[in-house]
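Hi L.,

You mentioned the student needs an example of a multi-chain input paired with its predicted structure. This one should do, with 654 residues in total across all chains.
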Amino acid sequence: MDTEALRTFVRAAERGQLRRAADELGVTQQAVSRRIAALERELEARLFTRTPRGVELTPDGQAFLPHARSVVAGVERAVAAVRRGSRALRIDVLGLRSAQAVVLHAYWRSRPGTDLDVVTLRADDPRVAVAAVAAGDVDASFRSVTDPDTLPPDVRMIRAFDSPLHLLVGPRHPLATARTLTPPQLRGHRIWVPGIAPRSEWGDFYDQLTDAFDLRIDAAGPHFGDDVLLDALADSPDTATLVGARDRYLWPAPHDLRRIPVVDPTLAYPLSLLVPRAHPHPALRGFLTHLRSLPGLPGAVWLPSWARRQPPPASRPHTGKDRRHVR
Amino acid sequence: MDTEALRTFVRAAERGQLRRAADELGVTQQAVSRRIAALERELEARLFTRTPRGVELTPDGQAFLPHARSVVAGVERAVAAVRRGSRALRIDVLGLRSAQAVVLHAYWRSRPGTDLDVVTLRADDPRVAVAAVAAGDVDASFRSVTDPDTLPPDVRMIRAFDSPLHLLVGPRHPLATARTLTPPQLRGHRIWVPGIAPRSEWGDFYDQLTDAFDLRIDAAGPHFGDDVLLDALADSPDTATLVGARDRYLWPAPHDLRRIPVVDPTLAYPLSLLVPRAHPHPALRGFLTHLRSLPGLPGAVWLPSWARRQPPPASRPHTGKDRRHVR
DNA sequence: ATGGGCGCACAACCGATCGTTGTGGCGCGC
DNA sequence: GCGCGCCACAACGATCGGTTGTGCGCCCAT
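Structure written out for the whole complex:
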C-alpha cells in the first residue's frame, strides 16, 4: 500500500472533493481518482460514494479514515526520526531493560508528546559510542569511559545517576531469606556475573569491588544468555549474581528468585552520559535537567574509584542523613 | 513511501539478513535489497550496515525501526477495519461528541485492545441507518425509530440507556444561578432547540415534552451550527436550550454558559440501538452486556411514550430508591 | 593457501503501475 | 435546455518493481 494514496484519501475525505484534493496535492484530478480507485481495489471496499457535487465517505470509508490518518502521522514521525538536522532526541542505552532505559522511559512518560528514540549500539567497545556521539549519530550515550582523558575534545562525560545493585539468589541459597545484606556478608559466597570483558568498564568495577570487600566475583567467562544464568541461579544453593535495582532484566522469569538490597554501604554503579560538547540536541537539556532532579541514594554509598573523583550528580539524597563515601 | 518496503525493512531487521527476509516474504534477495535501497534513498539515511554475514541496523535504522513497526501495525488495523467478514466492530453514532459516543468511548477504554470503529451515517433519515444495519455496513446504530413496527424483520431495536438532559443557559438568564430545576420551573421560558426535523424522533420527543409540562420549546427552524446557538445563548437573557448531560457538544466554547440538571422528574432521552437479528458481530455481545451494566438514572424519570412501553434497560438505578415513572 | 559457500549489490530485461492529456457522462442551476 | 462542475475511462510515455544473471567480498573448511 502506498502511503501517498492514504494521504490522498485523507485529503479527499476532508475536502469532500477529489478535485480540491488534487489541487492541494499538486496533481491532476484524474491521478487522485486513480489513487482512490487503486486503494478501493486493494481494500476490496468502496470508500467514497461519488456524487455530482463531490465525494462522500461510505461507512467503510468512515471506519478507514482514522486509521489512515494514524498511519500517515506514523509515517511522518518515522521520517522525522531519521531526518538530519531536526530529528527526535536519540539516546543510546546498554539494553532496553536496563536501569538506564527505565529512567529514560520515566522521563518520556513525564513529558507527554516528547519525541524520543532509544537505540542500542551493538558494540562492546565504548569507543564506538564515543564516535557515535561525536559524529552526531546519537545525541547521548549511557556509556562510561574509565579514563576521561581518553575522550576526544568534542565529547563530554556527565554523571547521570548512581544505580544501586541488588543481590539475586535462588530460593535454596543461604542468603535467600535476608531482607538486606551488607557487603561483608557476601564474603565467601560465589557471585557469578558472566559476560564481562576483562578490561572493560564493568570489569574494572567488579575488580575494584572484589578488592574493596574481599569478595569472590566470577566476572570472566562467556555469557550464554539470561536464561542460562537464571536456570543456574534457581537451582544453585551457592551461586548469586548482582543486578541493577531498577533493571527490568530477568523479570519475566518464572524462577523463584529473590532480590536482596545491599546496604551500608549501598553498592552503586555510576552511570554516565556521553554528550557532544558542540551542537547538542535542543531536547537534551531537558533530559539533563531531569537527571539532576533525580533523588540520590540514601545512606552510605560505595562507588568505584573513578566516580569518587567528582561529586555525585543528584542534588540531595533521599533521607536527611548526609551521604558518606566509603573506601 | 511503500508500506511493503516498511514491512520488508522490519523483517530484515528482525532476521539480520536480507536473504532470510526475502525467503520469508516470498521474493528474491535482490528485490529486498532494492526495496531497502529505495527506502534509504527516500529517507536519505542509511538504515543498515552491510556485513558479509548479513545486515546490521545503524543508529538511524534503530531509531526508525519502532516507527516502521508502528506504521505496519497501523496499516494492518486499517485494512482490518474494512475487511469484510472479520472487520472490527463498527457502530454508528449521531455525533462524535454525543452522549452515545462518550459511552462508547468509555466502553472502549474499559476494554484495552478492542478494535472499534465509530462512524456517523450522514443522513437525517433513520431508514438509512436501518438499511445500513440490515446490510451489515454497520454492526449497530444508535438510532431510534418511534414505531418499532416499521422495522424490517431482520433488524431489532434495543434500549441502550437513558440520557438525562441539562438546561444550558447564558449568564444573564434568570435561571442561571439555579443548582437544579424541575420541569415546571421551565414553564414560560423559551427553550430553543434548533435543527430538529418536525416528524423525526427528536421532534416527537420535544412535542411530547411540550405537552407533558406545558413548556415552550422552539424545535423548528434550521440549525445554523453550534457556534450560532452558543452565541445566541451567551447573549440572551431569555433563551435556553437542552443538551444531553454527558454530551461533549459545546464544550470548547469560551462562552460562560451554565449547565443545570433538570430533576424530579429527570428529563431523559431514551437512546436505542439498532442491531441485526441475524449474524451479529461477535464483539457486539460484549458491548450490549456493558450497556446493561450501566447504572440507571436516580429518582423519578420522565420518558417519552414509546420508551414507557418496555422496561428501562439498566439493571438498577443509582440510589436505593425505586425508579418512578411520571406521566 | 585456496576454493567453495554465503550474503549483498549491480545490470539488463520485462511487465505493471503512475501520472499526464483528452474525452465522456452525469446532475445541478442559471 | 444548455453550460458548468465533478468524476470516470482511455491512451500514451515515464518510472518503478520484480526477476534472472553476475560480480565482489568475507568466512571457513579442505
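You could point out the following to them. The domain at 162-268 of chain A is CATH 3.40.190.10 (D-Maltodextrin-Binding Protein; domain 2). The radius of gyration of chain A is 27 Å.

Best wishes,
N.
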